Inverse folding.
C-alpha cells in the first residue's frame, strides 16, 4: 500500500482497516484526506484477496466534518470543481466490490456523517455524536448525503437533520437507521472487525453481487429482477457455489476462493 499523510491502512488477512488520521482536528476531511481516501479505496479494491474494509477515525473520533480552513478560497467559480473531487470519493465508496463497514466513535459531523452513512453497514458507539451540521456553517448537505440519508432514515427525518443541524447520539442514530449496530462492552472496533470477519467467511462473489444490487435502489421492480437474474446466473456457474453446496451436504465450513 502507498504511504499517506492523513490516512493509515492496515491489513489483517482478508480485511482492510482504513483510519482517517488527523486527530488534532478530529479527523476533519481536508483536500489531502479526501484524495488519499480515494487512492486508498482504489488500491484495496484492486486486491482480489480482500473481503471487507473497516473505516474509522483516529483517537476516538470518526470525522468532525469538512475542514473549513480549506474552504477559505472556495466560491461560485471553483465550487463545482471542489465538489467534483469529493464526488469521486462517494463513487469510490459506493462502487467498491467489497462491503465497507463504518466504525463510528466520537464526532460524525457534516461530511463525517455523510461518509459514515455511505458505508454498507455502520457500527456506532452509543455516545457517538451524529450531526448533519452543514446548515450551521451556511452550506447544504453534500458528499452524497441528499442521496443516502432519505434511503437510510426517510425523507422527513433527513430533512429535519439537514434543516436543524440537530445532534443525535449513537443509540438514536441506530433507532432511525443511520447506523445499524450499537456497540456493547467489546467496543466499536472489536464489533466492526468481528462483523467484517463474518462477512469474509461468506462467498465473496455472492457478497459482491449483492453489494452491486443494493447499490441500485432506483431500479424498478422489473429492472431489479432482471439484474438479479443476470448476477445469479453467473453465480450458478461459480466454483464457490459448488464448494458451498458440497460443504452443506458434508456439514462442514465452506472454503470459498472467490472463483
Amino acid at each position: 500500500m502507498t504511504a499517506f499523510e492523513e490516512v493509515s491502512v492496515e491489513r489483517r488477512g482478508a480485511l482492510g482497516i482504513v483510519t482517517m488520521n488527523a486527530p488534532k482536528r478530529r479527523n476533519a476531511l481536508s483536500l489531502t484526506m479526501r484524495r488519499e481516501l480515494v487512492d486508498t479505496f482504489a488500491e484495496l479494491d484492486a486486491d482480489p484477496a480482500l473481503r471487507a474494509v473497516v473505516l474509522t477515525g483516529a483517537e476516538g473520533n470518526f470525522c468532525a466534518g469538512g475542514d473549513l480552513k480549506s474552504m477559505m478560497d472556495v466560491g461560485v467559480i471553483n465550487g463545482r470543481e471542489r465538489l467534483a473531487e469529493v464526488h469521486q470519493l462517494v463513487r469510490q465508496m459506493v462502487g467498491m466490490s467489497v462491503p465497507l463497514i463504518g466504525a463510528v466513535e466520537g464526532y460524525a459531523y457534516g461530511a463525517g456523517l455523510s461518509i459514515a452513512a455511505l458505508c454498507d453497514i455502520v457500527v456506532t458507539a452509543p455516545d457517538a455524536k451524529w450531526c448533519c451540521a452543514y446548515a450551521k456553517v451556511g452550506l447544504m448537505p453534500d458528499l452524497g448525503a441528499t442521496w443516502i440519508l432519505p434511503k437510510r432514515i426517510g425523507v422527513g427525518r433527513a430533512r429535519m437533520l439537514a434543516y436543524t443541524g440537530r445532534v443525535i447520539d449513537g443509540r438514536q442514530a441506530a433507532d432511525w437507521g443511520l447506523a445499524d449496530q450499537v456497540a456493547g462492552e467489546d467496543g466499536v472496533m472489536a464489533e466492526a472487525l468481528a462483523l467484517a470477519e463474518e462477512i469474509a467467511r461468506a462467498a465473496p462473489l455472492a457478497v459482491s453481487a449483492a453489494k452491486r444490487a443494493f447499490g441500485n435502489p432506483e431500479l424498478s421492480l422489473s429492472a431489479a429482477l432482471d439484474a438479479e437474474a443476470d448476477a445469479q446466473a453467473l453465480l450458478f456457474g461459480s466454483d464457490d457455489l459448488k464448494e458451498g453446496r458440497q460443504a452443506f451436504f458434508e456439514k462442514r465450513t465452506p472454503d470459498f476462493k472467490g472463483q
Q: What stands out?
A: The mean pLDDT is 90. The CA atoms of residues 54 and 222 lie 33 Å apart. The longest helix spans residues 76-95. The radius of gyration is 19 Å.
